[in-house]
Amino acid sequence: MATTSGGRKPAITMMRSDHESLSRLADSRAASDPDLSDQLFAELDRARVVEDGRMTSGVVRMGSTLRFTTDAGEDRTVTLVFPGEADIAIGKVSILTPIGAALIGLSASQSIDWTSRDGRVHRLTVEHVEQNDVARPQPEFRTA
Prior knowledge:
With 144 residues, the protein is of the alpha/beta class. The chain has helices at residues 16-28, 34-46, 98-103; strands at residues 13-15, 48-50, 65-70, 75-81, 92-94, 111-115, 121-130. It has one domain (13-130): Transcription elongation factor, GreA/GreB, C-terminal domain (Chitinase A, domain 3, Roll), CATH 3.10.50.
């Protein structure tokens, strides 16, 4: 199991198209939500970026459905989506949430610590990643 220690985060990989879309998204939200924008930029900065056609199927990317477990004993299945598609009631988690930003780029068996909006630190482990083959639109983001 790939884990982190001493506050280090695990290595992550991101498709170029996701990296570009998420960079625009983080930039567009910088003024209205600087903390979350900074968190997403931090993940983007540490990601190894690969061409879309070279991305392996076991990596969490936008539109991926994944199962993860937490240190609190939760076992959840979610789909990582852009903010306009988010609906936690049906398991669609926005990339613009602390857990969404933590998930991007992880592979099965990797663990990461993330800080929830209430300030508590949690640990999650990705158990399984599945890619949805549906073509997904690239949202447009405007900077304010």
